[in-house]
Every structure is written in C-alpha cells, then in structure tokens.
Amino acid sequence: MTAVVEARSPIPLIEMRGISKTFGTVRANEAVDLQVMPGEILGLLGENGAGKTTLMNILFGAYAPDAGEILVGGRPAAIRDSADALAAGIGMVHQHFHLAPRLSVLENLLIGIPGRAGRLDKPGALARLAGIADRYGLKLDPDQPVSALSIGEQQRLEIVKALFRGAKLLILDEPTAVLAPTEVDGLFAALRSMAGQGLGIIFISHKLNEVRALTHRCVVLRQGRVAGRVDDPAVTTSAQMAELMCGHEIVPPAKEASTVGDVVLSLQKISTARHPGMALHDVSLGVRSGEIVGIAGVSGNGQRALADVVSGMLKPVAGEMTIAGSKVAAFTPNEVQALGLGRIPEDRMATGLVTNLPLADSMVLPRIGTTAFSEKGLLKPGAIRAFAEEQIKAFDIRCPGPFVRAGALSGGNLQKALLARELAFDPKVLIVAQPTRGLDIGAAHFIHEKFLGLRQNGCGIVVISEDLEELLTLSDRIAVMYEGRIAGVLDTKDATVARLGMLMTGAEKTA
Amino acid sequence: MMFRLEARTTTPAWFNVALPVAAIVAALVLCSGLIALAGAGVFEAYGVMFSAAFGDSYAITETLVRATPMIFTGLAVAVAFRARFWNIGAEGQLLAGAMAACFVGAFPMPGLLAMLLMTLAGAAAGAAVAFVPAVLRVRFKVDDVVSSLLLNSIIFYALMALIETVWKDPFSGYPISPPIEDAANFPVLMEGTRLHLGVLVALLAAPLVWLVMTRTVFGFRIKVTGENPQAARYGGIRVERVLVATALFSGALAGLAGVGEVGGVHFQVMSDISPGYGYSGIVIAMLARLNPLGVVPAAIFLAAVMTGAEAMSRATGVPAFLSDVIQGTALLAMLVALLFTAYRLRRVGGRA
Hints:
By secondary structure, chain A is an alpha/beta fold. Chain A is 33% helix and 24% strand. Chain A contains 18 helices and 22 strands. Chain B has a single domain (2-348), classed as ABC transporter involved in vitamin B12 uptake, BtuC (Orthogonal Bundle). Chain B has helices spanning 15-37, 42-54, 57-82, 90-105, 111-140, 144-164, 197-215, 217-227, 229-234, 239-266, 277-287, 292-316, 322-342; strands at 2-7, 343-348. In chain B, helix 3 crosses helix 11 (277-287). The interface between A and B is medium-sized, with 38 and 28 residues.
C-alpha cells in the first residue's frame, strides 16, 4: 500500500512535450520538453531570439504549435487562446502590463470576470483580494486608480490578477527588467511564498544572478532547442549558465587604463521645472574625455530629467551647460548634436526608433536634415542606403537588410542600430540611458565593448543605469542621484554596492 | 474546423495591390444583393455600369473628369493621414478652393494669368481652411477629426449664404455664383469631350506628391511624425510645425480639387458643386493605403462607380444611390482587409 504511494511520481502542473514551431524559415522552437512541478520555480533562460517568448506564447495559447502537446495536470489539454490557458490554470505576466489606467485596482481585477445577473460581485472580490494579499504578501489598495500605482505595484496587480483568476502556474516574462533593485526583493519574496504554497512559476530572465538566487531548476534554450538543463542553479556559476546560453565561453570585456583629457561635458547648477519623474535641483557634473561617468540612483530620482537636459529635450530653468567648451543655448536635439553630443534614449522602441518604418529611416532620423543625408530639402537615398548598410555590417546588426521594418529587430540589434547611428558621427560626448536593459549577455557585452573602445579613443561617456553591476564594470566615477540632486560622486575603486546603496537612499551624503 | 487570428511578423508587398482589389470585389459582391432586391439582374447591372464608365473613349474621358477632383482629395487625405493629422475636412477645403478660384476667375485678365491666379487662390483657400483644425490641435489639443469635420458644414452653409445673397448671379434665377470669364476656362484637351487641363494636372500631381513623400526631407518628417511623434521629437523634428505644414499641404491639394471643378467643369459655384468628393477622398486614400500613386486607380474606380451607377439606374431602375453604398462598403471592406496586414488567418483543428 505505502509502496504504491511512494512509487507514484508527482504529477507535473504543466508539461510541454516535443513542442515545435516554425515561422517561415525560422525554427523558433524545436522538440522542446519542459515541465513544472507544484511548488517549483523554473528558470527559463536563453538569449534574445532563442525561442523563450514563442514557447511561452504557445503555452498561453497565443500560437498553436506545429507539433507536440501540452499536458495540464497529467492530461492533454488544447490551449487555443488565453481563455483556455486561464481555464487550465495558467496565468501570464507580460513585460508590458495590460491594465486600464483609469480604473481602480478592484475594477481591473473584475475585467472579464462574469458577474451574477449582470452585476459585479464587488464584496466577494474584495474578500478574495484580501485573501490573496494575506497568503502571498501581495498587498494592494483596492480603491487606488491604476494610474497612481508605481511600476512595481502595477506588476503586483498583474500577478494578483492571474491568481484571482485561479492560476496555478504563473509565467513571468522578464519581471525584474522594469523594477528598481529594492522592488526586486519584494517580488522575489512573494514568488517564494507562492511556490511554498504549491504554485508553479516560470521565471524568464537574462539576469543570471537573479536566476541563481530564485529558481529551483533551469531550462536553457538556444536557437529554439533545449541547450541544457540546470538542476541546481544556486551552485552553478553564472559563467557556466552563460556558456550554455551562448554556446561558447563568455569573456567579459576588459577595462584598460585610458588617458583622461579636457572636460567635454559640463553642467553647472542646472535646475529644471517640474518633470514627470523628478526635476533637477542644482546639478553640477563634469565629464572629461576618455572617462566613463556612471549615474546611479533608484528609478525616479532625476535621471530622466538629466538625460533630457543633456540630450536637448528639456531646457533647464537655471544653470549652464557646455559641450566640448561651447555653451548650449537653445537645448534642442539639433543643437546638442551639432556640438558633438551622441545620445541613446532609455526607451529604444518608443523614443529611439520608428518601428513601422524601415530600419534605415530610424538610423538616419536624428541627422536627416544634415548634408550627410539630404541637400536642399531633398533626400539622398543612395547615401542613406549606403550608410545603413555600412553600419549594419560594422555593428553586426542581424537583419534581412536596411529596409526591413525596424520593429522586426530584436532588442539587442535595435540597441546596436541606435549605437551605430551615433558612433558614425564621432561624438565627443555620449549619453546613454539603461544601455543594456533587456539585452542578453552577448549583446550587452558587445555594447560594453563599444563604450570601452570609445573611451579609449577619447570620448566622454555618461551611462545612466539602474544596474549597479554594469556601472561598477564600466565607470571610472559614479555619481549617485537622489531626489533630483547629485548625492555624491565616488571613484569606482572606492565604490561598493553597500556604499552606493546608502547614497541612493539618501542615508549618506558626500561633498 | 475553426479559424483564428495570428500576429504576422511581416507583410508581403503584393498585399498593397491585393487588399484593395479584394476590398472592391467584396464590396461589389455584397452590393449585388441590393441589386437583386431592386429586381435587376446582377451581371446585367454591373455590365451596364462598366460599359457606362469604360465602354467607349467618351465614357473613359467622363470617368477621368469625374475622377479628377477625387484624385486631389484622395491625395489630400493620404498626405494628412500619413502624419496622423486626421483631415476629414477635404470637402470644406474643396469648397473653399472652388469659391476662391471662382472669385478670382471672374475678373477680366489674360487667360493664362487667370488660370494661374485661380490655382494659387484655390490652393491658398484650401490651406487656410485646413490650418484651423491643425492649429487648434497643436495649440489647444482639440480633436482634429471633429474640428475638420465640423468646418465642412460651416464652409458649406457660408457658400450657400453667399450665393443666395451678395454673390448670386444677377442673370440667373437659381442660387449660383456669377461665372468666371470665358478666358479663364481651362482648355479642353480632346475635342468633343470635357477632358480639361485639370485632369492632366491631377494625373501629374499624384507622382509629384509621391516624390514629395518619398524623396524629400519634408515627406520623411511627415512619415516619422505620423508613425512615432516621440521618436520624431527626440530626433530633432519639430512635430507641431510638421503637423501644421502637413495640414497646409493637404488643404492646398483639396483646394485644387475645387479649382478644377470651377475652371474645367462648372465655371461657377453652386451648392452641389461637390457630391461629397471630399468624403470620397477618405475612401480613396484608404483604398490606396495612403500611397499617392495608388490614389489614381482608386479615384478612377470610385468615379467609374459614380458614372456607372447613374447609367445603371436609367437602364435597370436600380437607384443611383447604390454608388454611395458601394463606396461605403468598399471603405468598410478595406478597413477589414487592413487587419490582414497585421494578422493572418490560421486554421485550427476541430479538437474541443
């Protein structure tokens, strides 16, 4: 009797068997097997384009697989759309949230839930919301409008929404990409508590240290196939996992000594008017040629305003800025560009490129009015094409050609394109925000190598990032922003995560 | 068996032709039910329509004359929609262009000069009308769909008021404006037809506008502003300026539609100078997928439906209003067809 019970293997919450999916000539998934047990946090790893998103979209019913089957609780299930997926107990938290900003937390929860006799069961929903909050530590104010929630709270609402609909398996697509370091801890605590109570979780991420800290087991995809499985992520090194993902050894770019020269960018007592996020107060900062200055800070402490001022998107109300010794007067994109500033925006898709137009258009956009690409109001199609082709080659931008829709490129290739369009004009100063957010290791290293190469060639670089590891690797000095001011500037050799953390939370101030 | 929509990663190039053709075929098929209801033979009715529009060289010239104002309004809408300036006001801009051209053309002067001034005045009047919703949007965030649409009524009733009072032709009992000078009449290109100079100008305007949109910095800025104003602004484009400039360009094109009708067809202004050419411009621009070159065949199609419907009505008794139904159905069919640029239909097995 007892032997029978012991021999019976536990039934996986979800099992995918031999899943294959082809788009045109691209094999997005090939014979992928994957299972999640109750109480398990499974890491799904892979570079961009490895097939993680396709696989999860198949599980969530957005695509039908060409071959293979999905078992829910041991029984084959047909998942044809998200309603089927929800009915099967599968919930997904996308990178981009699907919330109605003007409705309250409670109303968002009730969207799509059939009421009784046309009436919404608000008291019942409130009780269940309170239950979920208690069980997993996911607290939310039910009456707050979504527009008043922070990004972390919106993500919490998405998770609660899935649980509210009875999800037993939760898929999270790069959930930490949008979070500040402090919010990540809260998310992990909630996920652990959910797993502890028997839910299954699939955690998709690029950040290997997070995967190692959180997951019980990992599946690594490469070119649509399972490249390897990691049964004990906590004792596997990041380098080993990275090697599985890329198929070859990963050597982080080395930082050599560089010659620091004249000040190429200087801000003196810059203050701005109100700014979504946080305005700047009396910000002074100097960047010399051949140096990388990192800007650290918890999201929303003035980094956006700083990037906007330097990139010519926001005119300060007080203070002075010079680029390569020339005073900036109008603070327009064309002015700062003409003075030798290169800019890479934080939001590649929304601010950097025009996803519906050919890639070449996005690559020439900021300088379309200069003689490089036009003359007397007429475009130079030959020059535009040649430029795009040259940069695609030089930066190894993987795409079918310069006239492919820019939106069809992966994040890493988009970032390379944005970098290419600036570097081609030999900037004296470069300002970049969140340069490797959402990129895989290969692409991130490529970007970092380019920055270090630029630094070697005497460019001054400002890197705004919420990834402290990145700042510590790249920067010569790190300035920490807190409440719209520079709370302190550290030499990277004196900077530790702990010390930076103190400055970031306003607990310490240096001169 | 079931079907479902799946997101597409790319849109094949032949869709640009296939979608409008499919939309037109769908519209004709759907409307054949109405023809049958009216008691006529479907093939007979469409046969009459086709021969009335393309049956002989005279019919073809008439179709082209009819298509001319719609080529201009189609171009006007295509340009505006590219910038996501929702110009629903081509009708009013056309009327303003017609009035300005008629006013200028009534002054005695050499013919060539008159035609030139009429063209400039008409384009300027159309641009001025389009300027209003553009500035309201850029300055005060007023919805351009609503403001440009409502302006149509204002201009139309202003025209009515004028031609019934101070601008009424003293030699006519009807509310029509005084005619333009004979010298200002556009030359006819083919003896015995109404094929006037404006037709040629319209046919040349389409490739010209195409060149503006594809080969100039202005066209580049229009496209980028329409597709992603945030990226445009980051790229140094002054989005508000581009929107206003696009509105002026679009309004001028719609104004030219009115110039052609006054100079080449009616020689004066009356209340029914446009049977909704401005609104047809929206259908045409959508059928053309906002491509200026596609505007010409799309306008010719609608013109053929209009001329054809009148002949069909005489021959078979099906009301000529069918032409409006075909237009509307074609627009709806095209909007549905556009779905397939972003999605594909996929058959799913009958598993429950």
